[in-house]
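User: Is it possible to get a 3D structure for a protein together with its bound compound? The compound here is 6-diazenyl-5-OXO-L-norleucine. I've pasted both below.
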Amino acid sequence: MTSSDIIDNYSRQINAINDQIRKSPPMGKVASYIPGLDRVPPDLFGMTLMTLDETVISAGDSKTPFSLQSISKVFSLTLALKAVDEELWDRVGVEPSGNAFNSLIQLELEKGKPRNPFINAGALVICDVLISAYDQPKQKLLEFVRFLVCSDELSYNQSIAESEKKSSYRNAALINLMKDFNNIKNPTDRVLDLYCYLCSLEMNCESLAHTFLFLANQGIHPSSNEQVITPSQTKRINAIMQLCGFYDEAGEFAYRVGLPGKSGVGGGIIAIKPCQYAIAVLSPRLNKRGNSYQGIHALELFTSSTASSIF
Ligand code: DON
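Assistant: Yes, that's possible. Here is the predicted structure of the complex:
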């Protein structure tokens, strides 16, 4: 197949998936535990694939912004690796947790060292690392994601961030537990503040596919040709996405979709095919594990019909 045949095929499949999902009965529920997320129209569906040469193929509500939530944990991990590199792994592991994203149980048993950077405990340690590394971590993070997406319009959603902070008893408990094990160095409220703002970043499927292209491109930002992280750091982040990006459903995602990816309770999913593309999906209804019900289904249909899983 020529590259234009491949693009035509991707485009046909994405349009067919959009039609199929829109005809299927609604499954799952929109996240309601963070005030503000429950106001999202539940039956949005959007999908964007972007190839390394920045060809964009979109269908449905691909231009509707949504709350990235845990998807943003990949940005904070990338920035922390840039700041402290391998030292990071003294404070957070790289193993799947097999537990819910906000669970406290394992953390107590494992003496305050989170299993990986994507469960909430791990993402909170990463925020602590960023606060120690940068004078203005919130601004630094925003500038970094703005650079990746090539737009100064991207912003935190202050009202989502502040409302999450008010109901973040469990995240505060995780921070305090880790503080007791000396794995959090900064004040609890500063760590919680950065974490909630990180999760509140908003963008649409087209921007999301764009921001993740560097992970499909050996760490090189395709728009500027800048090396964001080394190929080895890129390998590590993709491996962690593959094994931990969907919490206690990571095995199921690998089995059904077969790409490194990351989900968020805003209903978004991003996945990458190394050396080929990044693909973003939005479908806000979640399954019991907090992952987008139809988002996983859509990606399964896509990698099956295009034979483009990594396996
Ligand atoms: O900490 C929380 O609960 C949210 N800000 C993020 C959770 C999330 O997106 C989990 N992913 N599926």
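The radius of gyration is 18 Å. Residues 69-70, 101-102, 120, 164, 171, 199, 263-265, 290-291 surround 6-diazenyl-5-OXO-L-norleucine (CB under 6 Å).
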